[in-house]
Structure formats: C-alpha cells, structure tokens
Amino acid sequence: MAPFSVMTASVSLLAKSLSVLSCTSSLARCTSVLPAAYVIPVKCLTSQATGPPKRPLNGYMRYVQQQKPVITRQNPEIKSVDIIREIAQQWRMMSPEQKQPFEEASLRARVQFKLDLQNYQAQLTPAQVQQQALDKKHRMAKRKAIRKKRELTNLGKPKRPRSPFNIFMSEHFEDARGTTTQAKMKSLLEDWRNLFSHQKQVYTQLAEDDKIRYKNEMKSWEDHMVEIGREDVIRERTLSKKKTATESQATKKETKKSTAHSKTTRKATKSSPSKTIRTAKKT
Question: Is there a single domain that holds both residue 107 and residue 79?
C-alpha cells in the first residue's frame, strides 16, 4: 500500500506541474497575440511605500510621449533634438479640439495625483516628514546653484584655474590607457604618481601661470560687473575689500578736511591779536 500511495502522489504532483506549465505557455501565447495596448502591466505594490507618487505629465508632454516613438520609427537617423523640435512644431499647429484629449487626460491624472499624495503623506511618520523637508531643501539649493552657475557662464565669468594634475590629464587624455573615461583617468592618475619631481614642476609652473591669468581676468570681469550694476555676482571678499578701500578713502578725506579746518583756525587765532593792537593804537 505504501509504494502505491507514493506513486499516486508523485503522479498527481506531475500532473499539477504539467497543468501549470500548460497554463503559463497559453498565457504567454495569448499575451504575444494581444496588442500592447491591451496588455495590463503588473503594478509594483511597494512603489507607493518607497517614495511619493510621481507628478503627472501635462498635455504637451503626453503628446510628446505618444509621438516620439512614431517619429523615431519613421526617421531612425534623426537626432533627439530634431525630434522634439518637430513635435513642438506639430503641437503649435494643432487646434484646441485636437489638444483637448491630452489636456483632459492630464487633468484627470492631476486629480488622481492629489489623492495619491494625500494617502502617501497620511502614512508618513514625523521623522519621514522632516527628512522629506530636508531633501526638498537640498534639491532647491542644488537647483539654485545650477541656475546661478549658468547665469555666471552667460555673463562671461572666467574659468577657474586648473591644477597641475588637470593640466597633465588634458594633455595626455587621448593617449591614455583604457577604453572608458573612468579607466583613462585611473591610468593617468597612476602615471602622475610615477612622475619625478622635476617632471611635475613643469605642470606646477603652468598651474601658477594659470592662477595669474585667472586673477587678472577676474579683476577685469568684476570691474565690468560693477559698471553694469551687477554687484550681486561679485565675490564676497572682493566686495569687502572694495568696502574697506572706500571707507579708508572716506576716512582720509575727513582727516584732510579736519586738518585744513584746524590750520584755518590757527591762522585766524594768530591774526586776531595783531588786529586788536592796531585798533588800540588808532584810538
């Protein structure tokens, strides 16, 4: 009886595995036959817990998302910049009725986003809320720094001086060992460390010359910024130096004025007794 029961159990287990395999293969065949629009993607259950919901796309970005694969298939050799430019031109030429489906879809997504965001924030602990506030502060500071750097570049701010290793790397980067940028930089760092002191001295002198270049260019640039009324982009130490120089000049002027006034007072006091004696003699 025992061998027969074991055999029955093994046969039933084999039948179940075959049925599962057949169902999986049939599901795969059905999925391959159905179009991509009818295939329902499996949602990740942990996406809501790991991070906040993503902001929905506006109507224009939804149109870009729809048209970009179409234009890419039609023109495989076209650049991404040209694709976006063509899609933007199409969007500008569309009528409000043609844009309406994309705008309505964006509106529905925004409503759903607000509900998902409220549900997500209700599940957060006070520590997580504080951490999110800090992360947002860091992101805003980073964006502000990027915008300021872009503005300074547009205003023509001189490039910072290079270090000796940076000069060495720029000269030998093309001939460096390695296929990737990281591998080349690693090999150049090893070559730099193996250089003798007199070989490094050449690049050290070039770096010193570059510092002088940067100092002269920055002085001219900051003077120009003062002329056009952009003192807000000047370095703090330069402003403090200018302020100190202005205060010293004002102090010198005040000292000269006080000295001149004291000299005038002394002359007046010296001449006043003689005038009194002369008037006394006349009487």
Answer: yes
